[in-house]
Structure formats: C-alpha cells, structure tokens
Design goal:
The complex is a heterodimer. Chain A has helices spanning 37-51, 68-78, 94-108, 127-135, 188-194, 235-244, and strands at 2-6, 9-11, 33-35, 57-64, 82-87, 112-116, 139-149, 152-159, 162-169, 172-176, 199-202, 215-221, 230-232. Chain A contains six helices and 13 strands. In chain B, strand 16 (252-256), helix 8 (262-265) and strand 17 form a beta-alpha-beta unit. The radius of gyration of chain B is 21 Å and the shape is globular. Classes of the chains: A alpha/beta, B alpha/beta. Strand 12 (215-221) of chain A pairs antiparallel with strand 10 (131-137) of chain B. The structure holds flavin-adenine dinucleotide (FAD) and adenosine monophosphate. Chain B: This is Electron transfer flavoprotein subunit alpha. Chain B: InterPro entries: DHS-like_NAD/FAD-binding_dom, ETF_a/b_N, ETF_a/FixB, ETF_alpha_N, ETF_asu_C, ETF_asu_C_CS, Rossmann-like_a/b/a_fold. Chain B: Keywords: Electron transport, FAD, Flavoprotein, Transport.
Chain lengths: 249, 312
C-alpha cells in the first residue's frame, strides 16, 4: 500500500526565532531551516512500515516555497520513494494545506496518510484532523504506536490523562506524536541517492485550491520578557523567600 | 452573538480549564455548552450551574463513540448553525475534534488564544511562545481553542441553565474506540494545580523521580516533567510540560534538574513564581527563574523538605 507523508519546512527547532522589527512576522531570511521535527517522525514511521513489508511506496509532499525542495530531499534521503512539491509563496494555513492534500489523496489514493501532529512554527495542530474531515475518513491524532493489519490500523494515542487506543479502517489519517519513534539520520549514500529520486512540481492552482489565508496577521510581537531573579545559597533561604517575599506557600 | 463551548469533564465535574473557556466565551456573547460521555447527565448538571451558561446540550453515551473525533465533530457541525463562535479549552480532546469540525465548516481554526481583542481578532502564541501573533479571522464562524491559563475560570456555582439531551450522529464510521488507559493520581490536576513540582533529566531515573513526591505532598502540588524525563520513562507522557505537552501557569513552579530549553519554557513561563534547582549555573532555566539554587538537587531536595517541615 501507498503512504503519503506531508512534510513542512520550518525554522530549525534549535534556533530561537526573532520577531521582525516591523512586527509583521518572524524573521526567516538567513535562518537555518529544517524539516518539522514531527514530520521526521512521520517519515520514519512510514519507512519502518515499508521495511516491515506493509508499505510499498512512500510519497513525501511539501507545500511552500521552492526551497521546500530541500525538505523533500531530506524525506527521500530518509527513505521516501518520490515527492511532490506544491509551490506557493503564500503562508500555508492548515485549511488550505488540507485542501491541497485532499486533492493529492484523490489523485494518488494512498491508504495511509501520516502527518506530524503539529508544525512548530504556527503551532496549529490542525492539518491532519482537517484533512480527515475533508476526506470524510477516520483519524487518529497524537499517535505513539501504530500497527497495520488486515486492512485496519490500530493506533495508541496520547491523551490528557493517559492513552487511548482506536482502530481505523483504511484509508486513514494519522498524526505522529514525539514518542512514536526516533527518526534516523539520513546517511551520505542515501542523501546522494535521494538526488536522483523523482520530484514532481505543481502549484495549488493545478489542483484547483485557493491558498488565500483566512487569518490575517495584524501584528507579531515579542512576549513580555521574564527577568532572571536571584540566586540563593540555601534551601532555608528559598523557603523563607517563598513564604515572606513571594507569599506563594 | 452566540457561542457554543464544548466542555471537558471528569466523572461529571466540569474541568477548571473548561470554566476558563466559558469566561472567554462570555466576552463574545451568550453561551451555550455541550457535554458528552457516559456521565453526561451529571456533567450537564454541573455545567448548568456555571453562571453565564444559558443552555446545556448533553449527549449521554456509553458506547465509547463520544471519545471519537468523527461523531463529535459531526455533532458540532450539526449544532453549529446558530452560533458565531465555537470554543473549547485547549486539550487533547478539543485539539482532536475542533479542527475536524472546522474543516467541515470550511473554517480555519484559531488555536490556543490568550486574548480576545474583538469578536474577530485574537492573540495566540506561535513558535513555542517565542512570539505572540494577533490574527483577524475572515471566516463567518470562528472555531477557537482557549489557553486556559490566560482566562480566570468562571465560578462553578450560581447559574441555572436549561438542559437538552441530544443524540450523537453516526459520523463517517470506520473508526472504533478500543480502550482508554488513564493513570490514576491522588494529586491535583497538572493544569489547574496551584503549585507544580517538575523533574527533568537531572532526576536520572524512575526511582529517583519518585523523590519529588514528598516535596509535592508538602506543597499540595501536582507533578510535572520535561520531555527528557518522559522520554527516558521516568514518568508517563501525561506529565510532560511544554510546547507539545501541557501548558501550566501555577502560582509556584519548581523545576528540579531541568535545563530550560525553549520547548519546556513554552509550557511554564507564565507561572507566577518560578524556582529552579540545577547544578549548572549557566542552565537557561535560571534566565526565567525568580529564585534559583545552583547545586545538586539530591542534596537540596531533603533540605527543602526539612525547611518546609520546620517552617510549617
Ligand atoms: C518538537 C519538539 C518538541 C518538544 N517539546 C517539549 C515539551 O513539550 N516539553 C519539554 O520539556 N521538552 C520538549 N522538547 C525537548 C526539549 O528540547 C529538551 O530536550 C528537553 O526539555 C530537555 O529536558 P531536560 O531539561 O529535563 O533535560 P536536559 O536538557 O538534559 O537537562 C537536565 C538538567 O539537569 C541538570 N542536572 C543534572 N543532574 C543534576 C543534579 N544532580 N542536580 C541538579 N541539576 C542536575 C543539568 O545541569 C541539566 O541542566 C521538545 C523537543 C522537540 C524537538
Ligand atoms: N505547508 C505544509 N507542507 C506540508 N505539510 C504540512 C504543511 N503544513 C502542515 N503540514 C503537515 O501538517 C502537520 C500539522 O501542521 P499544523 O496543523 O500546521 O500544526 C505538519 O506536521 C505536517 O505534517
């Protein structure tokens, strides 16, 4: 069976984002970009399913600027077989991304779509659920374990008080949580091989999707800075300060 | 304007975070609410007592289907007609269900709002809280999750809403609820606790992590953890505080052996008072801590308990 894995190019998670001076957004020019960490986990899961013989083909998709090619190459170096770049300069909102993915799912007919649970730039945590809604297919978000057998997938999901297990008929949509797996590093030979793997380039218009964002950004600001406080020498002083100064105990 | 709030409850008692969502909702208009689950009747009573709530929709369901996103999203869409806004407190449940419903309504959801500027304009953190975005929605309906720590909870008592039983639609099918495993704890709920004691990688192992319990007992605190502690199996995932875990803002947050990476800070930096104990004087946690002790936590922990016993 085929798996589709959407991967987003975001500011590397080790970089502290800087708000632009004019308050229009976050600076991305000259900043190190990487694959969204949750999407690495999604790719890894697809690759493991392929290694188990459950999956025959993995297609990575990215919607964004031309540079999202790099992210797709990384996905292919990790083990995706081919990729699709849906090129747009517009900020990609989950609703529009879900519409693009729906069009691709209808074309490619994957039985499983594994997304990240959350993009660490917009922190939306929405695209997978929205795609599942648009496709009218079952969903399992925040997956920490995935097992495919007999035309169904059993997923353990992380919920607030513990975990939950659901069983979905295929085709289904899964979003990956951090504990699903540890993604591999792409080896140099695999990075070289990935250069030769096919990458299709299309635009949202080719799929009939309007990318116009529904949310307009009025401003982006730094959050109020917390100041470093004092270093204390002993537990006794801490308890006394908490009691008499901060009055929280 | 009328707002529908999807409430979380535990055994029929409305969660404090959901009462915060009601506070946010009352700033937008009249408030109706939805409760689901096997204890929906009790939850409906508890919801009806919250001042500001006009009407409660209750779905009593013992099949487990109300645990699934597909039928609940379909229900929200079915109820959505009369409402300008659909809200819920940010929780794993709400994040599972609301975006699905939003897609069916052709709406771009607005997650994790921390402020309401007007009926269309909201403030939300992005990049793990490194920036605050003010966004204006062009959608006819708004689908929103509310960061509970940013809004005071509505009182639990004083209201008298009407209750209406509704049925859960079938949803698209193909999804079966198998089981839920909840970890039991006598401690206060992490997200609404007045004091949180969290441990990180510095706790070294599962055994040592338990050393935080006597301190938490003395302070009536909930226990939290960094992702490193969760990853290494010191505690299970529901303890994780941070960008991709729980967001807490207690009166007092005590970080033991946590370095303070941005992803962790995202979940706790709005706490009123932050205490950090770390042996590395350069640990970034000290940049946000009101009170810090540089030292070995295994030495400081028992001293802290002794001091609390002395003073208390
Ligand atoms: C996409 C993504 C999402 C993430 N989401 C989260 C999240 O939600 N929450 C989260 O917490 N992390 C999250 N992380 C992980 C985060 O980046 C850090 O790796 C993690 O927070 C580190 O945990 P830690 O501080 O416990 O461990 P470490 O960074 O290893 O720090 C341990 C600290 O303990 C101190 N220490 C060790 N021994 C002692 C001792 N005996 N006494 C005193 N101090 C001691 C050390 O000096 C050190 O500062 C995420 C990462 C990614 C990529
Ligand atoms: N522009 C994009 N291109 C490819 N995948 C995306 C894009 N935006 C979101 N996704 C996928 O949707 C997941 C959740 O993103 P979000 O809903 O924005 O938090 C990500 O982890 C990706 O798997």
């Amino acid at each position: 069976m085929k798996v589709l894995v959407p991967v987003k190019r975001v500011i590397d998670y080790n970089i502290k984002p800087r708000v632009k001076a004019d308050g229009s957004g976050v600076e991305t020019a000259g900043v190190k970009m990487s694959m969204n960490p949750f999407d690495e986990i999604a790719v890894e899961e697809a690759v493991r399913l392929k290694e188990k013989g459950v999956v025959s083909e993995i297609i990575a998709v990215s919607i964004g600027e031309a540079k999202a090619q790099d992210t797709l190459r990384t996905a292919m170096a990790m083990g995706a077989d081919r990729s699709i770049l849906v090129e747009t300069d517009v900020v990609t909102e989950p609703l529009a991304v879900a519409k693009v993915l729906k069009a691709l799912v209808e074309k490619e007919k994957p039985e499983l779509i594994i997304l990240g649970k959350q993009a660490i730039d917009d922190d939306m945590n929405a695209t997978g659920q929205m795609l599942a809604g648009l496709l009218d297919r079952p969903q399992a978000t925040f997956a920490s374990k995935v097992e495919v057998a007999d035309g169904a997938v059993t997923v353990t999901r992380e919920i607030d008080g513990g975990s939950q297990t659901v069983k979905l008929a295929l085709p289904a949509i899964i979003t990956a949580d951090l504990r699903l797996n540890e993604p591999r590093y792409a080896s140099l030979p695999n990075i070289m091989k990935a250069r030769k793997k096919p990458m299709e380039k299309i635009t949202p218009a080719d799929l009939g999707v309007d990318m116009t964002p529904r949310l307009s950004v009025i401003s982006v600001a730094e959050p109020p800075e917390r100041k470093a406080g004092v270093k204390l020498d002993s537990a006794a002083e801490l308890v006394s300060r908490l009691r008499n100064e901060a009055k929280v105990i | 304007m009328t707002v529908l709030v999807y409430l979380d409850h535990e055994g029929g008692v409305i969660r404090q975070a959901s009462r915060s969502a009601i506070t946010a909702a009352t700033r937008l208009g009249d408030v109706d609410v939805l409760v689901t689950g096997p204890d929906a009747a009790a939850a409906a009573k508890s919801a009806a007592a919250i001042p500001g709530v006009k009407k409660v929709f209750a779905v009593t369901d013992t099949t487990g289907n109300s645990e699934l996103a597909e039928p609940v999203a379909a229900l929200l869409v079915q109820l959505a007609g009369g409402y300008t806004h659909i809200l819920a407190a940010s929780s794993a449940t709400a994040k599972n269900v609301l975006p699905r419903a939003a897609a069916l309504l052709d709406v771009q959801p607005i997650p994790d709002i921390v402020a309401i500027n007007d009926a269309e304009t909201f403030v939300r953190p992005i990049y793990a809280g490194s920036a605050l975005a003010t966004v204006k929605s062009a959608d006819a309906k708004k689908v929103i999750t509310v960061r509970a720590s940013a809004f005071d909870p509505a009182p639990a008592e004083g209201g008298s809403a009407t209750i209406e039983e509704v049925a859960l639609p079938a949803g698209p099918g193909g999804s079966t609820f198998v089981a839920t495993e909840l970890s039991k704890s006598e401690r206060p709920e992490l997200e609404s606790a007045r004091v949180v004691v969290s441990g990180g990688n510095g706790m070294l192992n599962e055994e040592n992590f338990k050393l935080l319990e006597p301190l938490a007992d003395r302070l009536g605190a909930a226990i939290g953890a960094s992702r490193a502690a969760v990853d290494k199996g010191f505690v299970s995932n529901e303890y994780q505080v941070g960008q991709t875990g729980k967001i807490v803002a207690p009166e007092l947050y005590i970080a033991m052996g946590i370095s303070g990476q941005i992803q962790h800070l995202a979940g706790m930096k709005d706490s009123k008072v932050i205490v950090a104990v770390n042996k590395d004087p350069e640990a970034p946690i000290f940049q946000v801590a009101d009170y810090g002790i540089v030292g070995d936590l295994f030495t400081i922990l028992p001293q802290l308990e002794a001091e609390l016993d002395k003073a208390g």
